Please model this.
Amino acid sequence: MKAMILAAGLGTRLRPLTDSRPKALVEINGRTLLEITLARLHTFGINEVIINVHHFADMVVDYLKSKSNFGMRIEISREDDLLLDTGGGLKKASWFFLEGSRQDSASQSTEKKTRSVIPSEARNPGKMPTSPNNDQALRASSNSDEPFLLHNVDVISTIDLHRMLQFRNEHNALATLAVQSRASSRLLLFDEKSQLVGRAPAGGTEAVEEPVIPNAVRGPGKIPAWPKNDQTTKASSPNAIRPLAFSGIHIISPRFLSMLTEEGVFSIIDAYLRLAAQGEKILAFRADEYYWRDLGRPADLSQAALDLQQRVIE
Model:
């Protein structure tokens, strides 16, 4: 399984920390957010990752080089001239998920070359790979329908990615979004079958990004008793619509990439909403039982550091 880490943002909420570095290289207890995210992906058996960069992009490249890519295959998708947002960023990096599987990025068989989309710069030593023509990439065929993971660099959680993948496979979802019942300024709406049906009005709820901590840590009765993932079709009301907060972690079918008709700068949520309205399965994976924290503000970093010290999260 491959993954993409979304790390191109300016990190404006983390200023002044991001005045001199990208948010991916902001540290918690001596470890960068990028290292923490990569280590978590590696724990779940993910060893091939693409990272989009923009703000202080070369610092990310140099950092990874100094760490020997943490023993992983890591590619860089540069957005030097323009931040493409989550959807545009994924579309630019789509070649990475459409290429033929390869164990050694430096050498490929002739058969794989005919099926893979390889950036032209990758054939020239010393140049950073960039994405090929997007239309060419989206027409390329993959030798596998294996889904991939999309993960924000500025979130930390204990969400079980194996369970999330199992849920995705059981329901054959085009995209699966880790969601929780918590306060957020950007709530998504899901029906009784966990299908995405809309988005709550902007600013409709208090703009609070509180962590979700398991009962064992937080104490009984503190987390709403929402149904578990295997019970989502048993909602008491046939017309129940649930507002849920997205956690910045998705598992996506490669079929999704060929459905991205949007161009330039766009949010992946807009694409999800369009495709859900067309009947595609964009499903919620309920992650209420897991720890989750947004790391977008200095205070969040301080609390996450304390949580790590107290082993609330490993």
